Amino acid sequence: MQRLFMIITGLLCSVIIFAQEKAVTGVVLHKANHNPLAGATIAANGKMAVTDANGKFTIQASAGDLVTITHVGMKPVSIKLAGGMQNLSIELEEEEKELEQFVIIGYQAQRKKDLTGAVAVVDLAPVKNNSSGNVMQALQGRVAGLYIEKNGGSPNGTNSRILIRGSNTLGVNDPLYIIDGIPTTRPEVFQNMDPAAIASVQVLKDASAASVYGARASNGVIIVTTKNGGNTSGKVNLQFNSSIAAQSEKSVRFNMLNSVDRGRALWQASVNDKQDPAAAYGEIYAFDWNNDYNNPVLNGVTVKPFVGGDPNTPAGNTDWQDVMYKTGIVTNNSLTASVGNKNSSLEINLNYLKNTGMLRYTGYKRMSGSINAITKAFDGKASFGVNVRVANSNETLTARDIGGEQTTFLAVTLAPTIPVYQKDGETFAGASGGGYSDRNNPLHMQYLSRWDNANRLSTFGSVFAEVQPLKNLFVRSTLGADYATYLNKTILPTFTEGAFNRTTNSLALDQNKYLSYTFSNTVRYNWNINDEHNIKILAGTEYINTNLDYQYTKKEGFAIQTEEYFTLSAGTGNTYVSGGSTGNRLFSLFGRIDYNFSDKYLLAVTIRRDGSSRFGANNRFGIFPAASAGWRIDREAFMSKQKLFSELKLRAGVGRVGNQQIGDLARFGLFDTRYGTNQNQLTAGFWEQYMNIGTAYSLSGANTGTLPSGFVQTQAENPDLKWETTDEINTGIDFAILQNKIYGSFDYFSRKTTGILITPPVASALGEGQTKAVNGASKTNKGWELVIGYQGERRGDFRYDVKLNFAHFKDKITELPESVRPAYAGNLVSTIIGHSQFDIFGYKTNGIFQSQEEVNKAATQIGAGPGRIRYVDINNDGVINDLDRTWIGTTLPSLEYGLRIDLSYKQFDLSLFGSGVAGRKGFDVYTVFNNLMRSRENVGPGVFDAWTPQHTNTNIPALTLKDNNNENRTSDYFIVSTSYFKMRNIQLGYNVKAKTIFTSLRVYAMAENLFWFKSKSYQSPDPERIDLQPIPVPKTFTFGVNASF
Amino acid sequence: MNKKYITACIASATLFFGSCKKQLEYTPTGVLSSADLTSPAAVEGLVTAAYAGIGNGDMIGPIYSMWAYGSVRSDDAYKGGGGTGDVGEIDAMEHYNLVTPTMDAFVSRTWKNLFKSVSRANVALRAVDKLSEAAFPQKQSRLAELKFLRAHSYFTMKLLYKNIPIFDENATADDILKVSNDLSWEESWNKIAGDFQFAVDNLPVTQSQIGRPNKYAAQAYLAKLRLFQAYEQNATHKVTNINAARLQEVVDLCQSVISSGKYSLSADIANNFLPETENGSESVFAIQFTINDGTTAGRLNYEDGLNYPHGAPQYGCCGFHAASQNLVNAYTTNASGLPNFTTFNNSIANLNTATVDVRIDHTVGIDGHVYKYDNTKLFSNSWVRDPGVYGNFHTMRNQQLATSSSYFKNGPFMGVAKNYDIIRYAEVLLMQAEAYIELGQPDKALPLINQIRARAAASTGRLKKQDGTFASNYNMQPYPAAGWTQAYARTALQWERRLEFATEGQRFFDLVRWGMAAQVLNDYISVEKSRRTFLATAVFTAGRDEYLPIPQSEITFTKGLYKQNPNY
Lengths: 1045, 568
Prior knowledge:
The complex is a heterodimer of chains A (about 1050) and B (about 575). Chain A has about 1050 residues and is mainly beta.
């Protein structure tokens, strides 16, 4: 009743006041530097005004009016005009965006504007909805200096390569992750996180920023902080995100030949080789031709009715890609609940992701959850917190056939004449008879693997206590654990398929347990000497203890082949067991001092001393210092008059970081017993299971029974082994101009890595197990990153933002001991010095020999002939041999860039994101199957454009099944521009006006990898699909909802 | 209160720093350092591992089965498999002129595997040497065994690559990287012979464990080495002299083995090719393989694992190592039961009418003939993988039946637990015969050769079809004394070696030893390419193709220390 009265009174007043409207003048200033703000909009009672160059305005308004002042990049301010307010002075504060954020920089937080190192703060809003279930994959192209390559469209969404500022080392280039203060080198801990649970992600790019992480930081550090404490309202907030996506690889399939066309190609290749096509392929095809090798004419090819003459197996015309793939459905649901008050808060997140897989009989399921709790005591002088995240995933991925080839490869290459099923329509068919490869029906293999499962259970968390015994003195102790178990079940049932069979079934369990715990203690002191001088001091210790235990158990002989019966104790055949353990220890001391003078001059110094069990007694400890400085020019008096820059800061830093990514036992000289080991138990591969490397031998001459066994050296000792050292100089500038309309940063870096850890192969004469890890190489890496953003004008309900990022790096090996060089690409003449290990070394080609005269005139080339590829005699010695190889390309780009546009209109929002690479010349895998003939595998239609004496205007060599010219050798014939730009994500959202239940409700539709641009010379459909083994990167269409209530 | 806090913090920090050194230790588990391997038991383990080393070859880097190097490269067999592109490295070797030093399978893997085997012997030699005879009574024998094993690997390497670096257990890693491959013919053979001689001098005449070589095995192997050494080659592999003194050594060494009475020819040659009769009276030295031994698949010979019939359902894959038409023709005999030395290859032998040497059915898979002594499943042309390219014949000596307890199918390929004979007694006889002939004493060779022929002629017991008949018309007789001149004897000896060891991987090395490789093989190609068109471009180039190239990677690894073999 009272409220109604007030409203009525107010309404009456407004009518009255309206009559008293008069001109109100004022000035709008920037709160931080008190500069006048031009272009600010003043709105009052339906009237509008804009400030002039001096920030001044005049508007007609009345006392009691609500005056709203807005400006791009600034927080809007509303004031109620009181009577007598005439000459207003309004200060606008910058909107809390990039430069105002707090950034976790290692054991502590810092305002972003005080940063002196190169730190990228990742904008998480656009990656909240991503279909892969992998935050990291969603970041591809979004962060300058963070280079990510996809590992295809595997349902578990893993990445193949993550590089921060390119490649600094020759071995593992993976960054270090710090999640809520706990380090881990397992990328999956981050990749499995629900974006809704992440508060912030920072990428420490340069050594001055990362050196506080010492011996593990040289590949960069990614710091992830989870959400907690945001809700202090005392009410439960719920956030629900749900989406369903459809994935399809149809658009990136390879065009392969049908049954009859493959026969035609085989005929042409055979007659070119002067070989009767029926001799090799007569069981598959009937060739009707004139039998004249000098002037061959093909009248027709027909497919023989049965595979291998088996009447149960009618020949097919199979499109194996079509058989193997289907539309994959990804559902992703997450619920976040948070509650809290001034002293305590709690945040719980639950997430369920399911991907049915595009490749048949594959799939991925993941359940994850996390709890963050924090409570404070003694007036906030002590705080205690715990956070735990658990992720449990199950996956069935690409299977292999009995020879070890992946079904994804067979989906492209298997002969089309093999049908999927036999005549009965349900028994799987397979190759038999002459002319086929030793490969299996991939659908059958995938079906047989349908019970295979890899289970990963990951628990990651920490507890901490922080007390403030004195004002500004904080003592913090954190105990964290990274615990993961892995259980991979492989069931190999018996089967018969065409000419192939497996007669013994088996169950194998491969499991391991990983536990890394971290105990860190820090003391921080903020020493505010006076208004101008501010010093922050941090000192700490960290102890990391990591252990891995692994076991492998295999049982053969299961009487019944059902999923449930395949348990170890049900088998009656042979048993194989193996296992072991490994681990490492790391102990560190570190400190950091930040000095801030008048908010203008910033200085940071860090030092860390690391001791690692991985390194020999001679080199166990390493020291990693760094220093950086910043100058906030915009705070200088002489900048107060200019209006261009609203923010301007120069940064420079130098630092040293290390890398200890080498095996736990790399420093030891080791002997091992290998009771009957084959190479496949150490390194996977096709031939490896047929390589004996064991130490057991039947001295007695018995043919069975337990054998005496011995020892073999597996690794040579290196007591001097130490970490790699990376020294880096970074300079950068952060800026914002035109009242923050345009903002950005630029960084240039130069690094040198020395003592790179490598395990080079050695001359065989040195013998078995004589390889050892050494600090043997140096690299330099230079590059820059540029980020530019533009915040568009708000015009009514329409707003838009544009953000661009560019990054360039170029790494090269500068030093490699001669003894190590042979392990890398190169030959006696041209070494890898001056090149990256990602560069490609091979022959140069110069077209196709058109005649025997040309062959005779050219350098001697084994296998040369008309129609054959001509290789370039680089050294002009008249012979094509190893010394003619040179540098012909690289697999890493010279420029990576991303573009993001966000638009909104009323309740609609639209965001477009694309990224690409430029300056990359790499291998086009399709060329191998589209330009060259394969005797056992299917090929693409390019082979019909091959050279013949009558058809010479082509770059495809004469078809041959013998390849005497060795045209599969690495050469620039396969190297083309692999640059591309991909529209990775387009998302259209609609914000439903908040109803009673929801505080916000947004529905959206999203398309990923919708279209892309690539070089014409690149034949493969997708420039990101660089080999045939991974599942292709799909196009994905998603529908989802984001709700808060 | 505040002080307490600080004190507690400092105290805990001190505690923590104080314990850090110990906390940093990590002791590897389940592995050993060389310091752990000094007890007699551990040293025996190193010796055992050295034995295992000679069996640690693989399909694409063979070190004992010479089917690719010694059989396919000769006139005995073709690569086989699924067309010429299937395992193309062997096709390159079969064409001779396509071999390059950069081939990363066979040429470089075999080199690597052989040196692994050498290093196992050297590691064990160093360890044995440090033990006293009191602590390790078998010291002398073990030293001798290890030198035998090392010499075996070097010998194999010498046949394949000719110019190899040779060093002993005293060479450090730095030393090894200074040892080039430029030893002369005599020096290199003598170095290897030194190891065999040590073995001869120090091995017991009888070993309690049959897997270990005895004195006679060492004598037989030394004889084999001296036989190769006797045919002295110049730098471009031309045989320039036959050294009579070396031949006399061969005669004497073989005589010692023969006189020992420990060995005899098996009653049936088949006994050499079956696991049930392995380590028999004819086996002088063999590499032992096992199955159902607690390892994942068995310690199997996989080197012949591609060489099973392709189309037969019991095998499935892969049809490599197909017998040549030339070999089949060579098995035909004339009315006197002797080989058709000059006419054998004039036409394609009609096996329905021709008379043949019994050994053809121990060697070649022929349509309608008993394959591998199993008369329930006769060999069929449908078992052949690529008849248009490689013809209808297959091989069988180093294959076992799919029903054999020694047979294991692993993925698409196979392994067998049958021993691999390195020297069998038949070779001791034929080596002595060869030495006698070249020494101008052919009469002493005649009974030796006829002993081989008599055994072969009697080896028909397992070749009968179910109806009791033979698929072939056998007629083989001993050589008569009449007309047994040195020249005739030489031809007969060469023929006998070919047929006795056909497809066992000796033929190519015999041809190179005799200095006949270029002539015999180019003659072979000139006829065979009309039968098998894939050979159309094959050419054997004398002065190059007698040996494999030194792997380019090894030249690079040693910064050019090794010299490439001529003309590569």
